[in-house]
Task: inverse folding
């Protein structure tokens, strides 16, 4: 990984150069919050809080996407696979979301590779921005190993005063810079360390604590698969699926066919689905394999803290806090569930 | 361009109604010389404009034939649409998917097939494979249970299996009129009729979720080891390839880790049955 120091106008220049050539998407203000959207000028970018309501996963797994088109022909059907991927620059992605994108990349790239996701991912340039203050009281990124993105980006900017400390993890990231900046010096590195140290101390003071050991989260979930907390929280759950929609690592999808009014041409679409919704595991005969809301809450929490953690060695909750903000009954926080179980565990 | 989600064309060569709700289809692939499936695997069948549904393959593996059979019960949108289709109509096929049965583990053994209702559909693939290589396997028991006599699938075929030497076929129904001469009662009532040699016996169970518990406890009572018990599970599936999340039970994907599971391993999956 290469490290540079870039003057702030230099970054502005790079963004403006990209805007001439490509679609650039970044958090922009929308009502009282922010949302990732295509920008037309550098000024539109929201750098810090508020956090976007919907995570940037929508660029790789769109809320709704045509994956096939078909049309009647010669008594049969002509079928065409669709994969609309465009070159984009995703600017201003926060560490929790960079980690989440890394994790969903693993899912879609393993075994049966999902070209629809991967093609979009490949065409995107990820420019991350370090968070120096917690974005909301709900954020628990430091606790859930989401605050440090390692090299999970093309370019990563940390504001170290008058300049950005810039880490470039790929050729795509280097290209974005267009030669702006200079290699980071020993002094710049020391400045970065001190900014990060202050950042970590601030996050440590402000963020809610995780009581169990992070690495024992899968174990804690396994030992407490049967626990009163599931029923207690499940009873309050509306089953609305909001937590799924706003989660940067929720990637489950449904697939449906749509026929045009000519009844000759149609599309197959995939769109976001959520394991908290009642019909998620219900088969055509009516059998529902996760009928109770507490079953579904337990499933979602276990996916984040246990099943996928076990498989990929990292929590699939990156602590972004979006589900906590979206949940109408304040029951869904994986960290708080883990804390409650930890405090009340019988084993 | 092809993706994970691109079905390939197939044509319905035959559509033979089995009961009021089930039809046996023979499908023919036009771009491949064989489906290349194992018993217990499934395909995703597309009825364009309606959707896609996972369906178990019901015919034995046929390495050099582009045709295969699917027995479909009309129960949802896609299957209702399928049952209104006829010879010559076109569908889309993806797959085969899933692990299927590893037939080598069953060679030289006695096998009990326990099928409840439509559970006979995937088991028929395995049973036919066994009959095609009869000398590789020892005794075969087939237990088949349905709600009513009119729900019985593959009736003629069952009769022919039952007449073969070394095959013990037992059927039962839950409810029957006077014209039914066979057994009435749940499928476990057939179990005492079998003379088992437990260490040499492998049991394969496919049926509705409620059936598994009863059959497995009965088999355990008869001293069949847990590691010799196999089940195939049903779940909602959209992608068939371990991505969409619908078929997940705890950390396991039924579509790609299953649908065939060994009971000794399945015991560790609380959401399984």
Result:
């Amino acid at each position: 990984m290469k490290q540079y120091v870039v003057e702030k106008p230099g970054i502005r220049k790079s963004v403006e150069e990209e805007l001439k050539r490509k679609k650039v998407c970044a958090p922009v203000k929308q009502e009282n919050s922010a949302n990732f959207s295509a920008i037309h000028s550098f000024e539109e970018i929201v750098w810090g809080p508020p956090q976007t309501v919907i995570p940037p996963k929508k660029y790789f797994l769109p809320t709704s996407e045509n994956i096939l088109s078909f049309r009647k022909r010669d008594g049969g059907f002509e079928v065409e696979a669709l994969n609309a991927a465009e070159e984009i620059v995703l600017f201003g992605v926060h560490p929790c979301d960079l980690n989440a994108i890394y994790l969903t990349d693993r899912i879609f790239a393993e075994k049966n590779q999902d070209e629809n996701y991967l093609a979009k991912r490949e065409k995107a340039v990820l420019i991350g921005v370090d968070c120096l203050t917690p974005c909301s009281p709900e954020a628990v990124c430091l606790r859930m190993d989401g605050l440090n993105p390692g090299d999970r980006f093309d370019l990563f900017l940390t504001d170290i005063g008058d300049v950005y400390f810039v880490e470039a993890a790929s050729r795509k990231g280097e290209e974005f810079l267009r030669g702006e900046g200079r290699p980071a010096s020993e002094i710049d590195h020391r400045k970065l360390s001190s900014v990060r140290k202050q950042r970590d101390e601030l996050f440590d003071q402000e963020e809610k604590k995780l009581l169990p050991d992070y690495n024992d989260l899968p174990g804690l979930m396994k030992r407490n698969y049967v626990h009163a907390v599931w029923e207690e929280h499940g009873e309050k759950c509306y089953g609305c699926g909001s937590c799924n929609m706003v989660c940067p690592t929720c990637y489950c999808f449904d697939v449906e066919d749509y026929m045009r009014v000519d009844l000759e041409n149609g599309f197959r679409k995939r769109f976001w689905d959520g394991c908290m919704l009642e019909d998620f595991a219900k088969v055509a005969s009516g059998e529902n394999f996760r009928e109770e809301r507490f079953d579904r809450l337990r499933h979602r929490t276990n996916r984040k803290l246990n099943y996928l953690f076990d498989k990929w060695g990292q929590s699939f909750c990156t602590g972004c806090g979006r589900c906590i903000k979206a949940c109408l009954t304040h029951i869904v926080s994986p960290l708080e569930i883990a804390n409650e179980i930890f405090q009340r565990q019988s084993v | 361009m092809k993706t994970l989600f691109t079905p390939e064309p197939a044509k319905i060569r035959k559509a033979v109604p089995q009961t009021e709700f089930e039809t046996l289809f023979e499908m023919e692939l036009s771009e491949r010389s064989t489906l290349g499936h194992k018993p217990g695997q499934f395909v995703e069948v597309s009825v364009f404009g309606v959707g896609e549904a996972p369906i178990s393959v019901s015919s034995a593996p046929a390495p050099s034939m582009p045709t295969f059979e699917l027995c479909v019960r009309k129960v949802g949108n896609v299957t209702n649409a399928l049952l209104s289709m006829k010879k010559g109509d076109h569908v889309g096929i993806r797959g085969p998917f899933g692990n299927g049965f590893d037939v080598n583990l069953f060679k030289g053994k006695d096998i009990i097939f326990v099928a409840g209702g439509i559970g006979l559909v995937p088991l028929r693939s395995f049973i036919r494979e066994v009959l095609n290589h009869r000398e590789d396997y020892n005794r075969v028991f087939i237990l088949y249970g349905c709600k009513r006599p009119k729900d019985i699938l593959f009736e003629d075929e069952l009769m022919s299996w039952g007449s073969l030497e070394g095959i013990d076929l037992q059927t039962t129904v839950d409810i029957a009129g006077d014209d039914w001469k066979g057994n009435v009662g749940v499928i476990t009532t057939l179990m005492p009729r079998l003379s088992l040699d437990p260490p040499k016996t492998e049991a394969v169970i496919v049926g509705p979720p409620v059936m598994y518990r009863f059959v497995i406890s009965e088999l355990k009572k008869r001293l069949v080891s847990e590691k010799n018990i196999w089940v195939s599970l049903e779940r909602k599936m959209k992608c068939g390839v371990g991505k969409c999340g619908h078929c997940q039970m705890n950390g396991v994907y039924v579509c790609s880790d299953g649908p065939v599971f060994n009971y000794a391993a399945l015991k560790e999956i609380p959401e399984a049955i």
Summary: Chain A touches chain B through 51 residues (CB under 8 Å).
